[in-house]
Amino acid sequence: MSSEALPRTRGIPRPSLAGRLFIACPARRPTVQNYPVRASERANLNPQALERILRTHFDSATIEGEAVSATYGAIERLTARAQGRELGVELRMNPKVPDDVARETIARYNRFLEEATGYSAKERAKRLRKSATAGD
C-alpha cells in the first residue's frame, strides 16, 4: 500500500512501516499550571523571592527576566513567574527516574508550592476543582 493510499491527516499523508501506520508523536511539552496565591503571600511573586524559595527547596535557581528556573531530581525544568495574582508554573518532568527520586521530587515540589502560594496541597486541589467546575 503506498503512502498516497493512506488516509490524510491535515493534508499530510501518513507513511507506512511494514504494513503498520506510523503516527508521529508530538514533542513533549511542559505542563503549565496557574496557582492562586493568598493575599498575604503575594510578595513571593517577585523574581527575587521566587528565586529564594526555589533555592530553599531545589538547591539552585536562576532568574531569567521575570521568570525563575530550577531543576531537581525528576524535574527536567521548572519555570515559575507571576501571572497577575497567580503563580504560573511551567513544569517538564522526566518519568524515567527511580521511584524514590520521584517521591522526593514531588514532596519538594509540594513544599515549594505551599511556601510560594500559602496554600497546602489539599487546599490547592480543592480550589482547582472548584475553578474547573465553575468554568463548565
Task: Describe the protein's architecture and organization.
The chain is α+β, with helices and mostly antiparallel strands and 136 residues long. Helix content is 34%, strand content 29%. The protein contains three helices and nine strands, in the order E-E-E-E-E-H-E-E-E-E-H-H. It has helices at 47-58, 99-117, 121-135, and strands spanning 8-9, 12-13, 16-17, 20-21, 31-36, 62-64, 67-72, 75-83, 86-93. Strands 5-9-8-7-6 form a five-stranded antiparallel β-sheet, with helices on one face. The protein has a two-stranded antiparallel ribbon with strand order 1-2. A two-stranded antiparallel ribbon has the order 3-4. A hairpin with a 2-residue loop joins strand 1 and strand 2. Helix 1 (47-58) packs antiparallel against helix 2. The longest helix is centred in the last third of the chain and has 19 residues, at 99-117. The relative contact order is 0.15. Residues 21-27 have low confidence and may be disordered.
